Amino acid sequence: MTARSLLLVAGVFVPLGCLVQGPAGPPGPTGTTGTTGRGEAGPTGTPGERGQAGTPGATGSTGTSGPTGPTGATGATGATGPTGTSGATGATGTTGPSGTTGATGPTGPTGTGAGGGGITWSTVTSSTAAAENSGYIVEASGVTITLPTGCAVGNEIDVVGDGYGFTVAPNGNAVDFAPGTVSAGAWTWADRTDAGSRNWVAVASDSTGSHLVAAVNNGDIYTSTDYGADWTDRTGAGTRSWIAVASDSTGTYLAAANRGGDIYTSGDSGASWSDRTGSGSRQWNNNSLASDSTGSHLIAAVGNFTTGDVYTSANGATWVDHAAAGSRDWHAVASNSDGSHLAAVAWGGDIFTSSDWGVTWHDQTAAGNRTWNSIASDSTGTNLVAAGANGSSGGDIFTSADSGATWTDQTAAGTRAWFAVASDSTGSHLVGVIGFGNTGDIFTSTDSGTTWTDQTAPGKQNWASVASDSSGTHLVAAAVGGDIWTGHATGSTSSLVGDAGATLQLVCTGTDTFYVLGVTGTVTAE
Fold it and tell me: Distance (Å, rounded) from C-alpha 294 to C-alpha 314?
């Protein structure tokens, strides 16, 4: 049976073969237009190849030149160039003829000396006995001028070395001179018993030697204003373990160190004292305090067989610890006249110097590692003298003329138990004393340490300290358990020796007494 397809019409299945098409119905209404569709843009095509460049056009013809413009104004003149080098100096012209000698002028009036008589001058080539109110021009070597006896007050005797040295013999006269006029040769020493026999440990002097200060260990501080003849007990400072003192150039500003305590200062020559607690309570040592010429700049050091530092002060009230110098067993310090150049020595160590008020320090190894006890400086800090001794076994004195860079062992002074040294303002006049028992004397030098003279008059003492005035002609020394002694240079028992070209002016101040009124060049009492 053939299968037939059926179509569902109005709910009735009708076989497809039996469908009959009806008439067409009327058209339905037109539907609304749908929205326009949007297709995505296609990708951009690749650029086409660049066409070939066209051929260059022909160069146009050159135009005709225009007329020449007018000339511009002249520019300003340039600056003048530098001056050329000077030509060589021309040759000196020939000397013209000498002029005629002028007429001799009238003779001047006769001069008058201190005694009222004029000075009569004469030239001498051999030794001569001098007459009062006479002048002698020495024109040969080996000439000695012998002073007269029984001179009249005010009469003069003058000597001029005209290219030659000379000697003036006292002939029994006393001859004295002001500090700094004649180099120290002979000395007069005095035992200053007014100060008393005490455990003196330190002395200091002003620039003239007239104002002195001295200290007693476990005692008081004493001052003098008359070269040590009379002394005043400065009780205002108190009884303490004084160990070191220092003075300015006038004796007005003083400083003192109390071992195991503070540093004290005075601005009125010792009448009153200020406890400078800013220094700290420390083990200050012998010879370990120094002052500049004004008393404002001070230096102090700690030692006493222990280790400590170096300290400086610009006013006494506040102190600076100079740790750069190192912590050592400092035994002594020194200062130049303005406090800028300092020096310090260590027991069993080296010598150290500073040229900038203690900010930086230099280890002067050339002096050697020794048991240094003392050091002193001239007014500039250029000339130094240092000494040391390992107890009674002794040591030497060393000097430096270049601020400590190099040192000379002054063997002529001898190997001794040196305890303290001092210098004048030039470094030429030196003094050293021997301590550690009654074992030695005071020694002086007038030639920067080359030669030394044993000053036996004060005797063998346990010397603890020594000081000098600026000229080296007034000294003061103190002994432990003994007295204070002062010495001054005098020509009363010696001759006065002048170098070539030196001049010497003497005036009679009393029967058989002459005073040096003036000096040029170098004159030494010998």
Answer: 10
Residues composing the chain: 526
Q: State the DSSP string of 28-43.
A: PPPPPPPPPP-PPPPP
Q: What tens digit of pLDDT does each residue of 49-83 get?
A: 665 655 655 655 655 655 665 655 655 655 555 65
Residue 248: Cβ-neighbour burial (10 angstroms; 0-12, 13-18, 19+): buried
> Residue 295, class by beta-carbon neighbours within 10 Å (0-12 exposed, 13-18 middle, 19+ buried)?
buried
Q: Give the burial class of 144: count Cβ atoms within 10 A of its Cβ; 0-12 exposed, 13-18 middle, 19 or more buried.
A: middle
Nearest to 511 by CA among 112, 113, 130, 132: 132
CA–CA separation, 258 vs 220, rounded Å? 11
Contact criterion met (CB below 8 Å) for 367 and 393: no
Per residue in 482-521, pLDDT tens? 999 999 876 544 678 899 999 999 999 877 788 888 899 9
Whether the model pTM is above 0.85:
no
CA–CA separation, 151 and 149 (whole Å): 6
How far, in Å, CA of 441 to CA of 458, rounded? Answer: 7
Question: Which stretches does DSSP call E strand in 292-424?
Answer: 298-302, 310-313, 320-322, 330-335, 342-349, 351-354, 362-364, 370-377, 384-388, 397-400, 408-409, 418-423
Nearest to 345, CA basis, from 357, 333, 358? 333
User: What tokens were used for 389?
Assistant: 């001794």
Q: What is the DSSP letter of 11?
A: T
Tell me how many degrees the CA angle 433-437-438 measures, rounded to the nearest 5. Answer: 75
**Residue 29, CA distances (Å) to 11, 22, 386 in order:** 27, 20, 141
Of 446, 112, 252, which Cα lies nearest the Cα of 120?
Answer: 112
Q: In sequence order, what are the residues at sequence separation of 6 or more whose Cβ sits closer than 8 angstroms to the Cβ of residue 27?
A: none
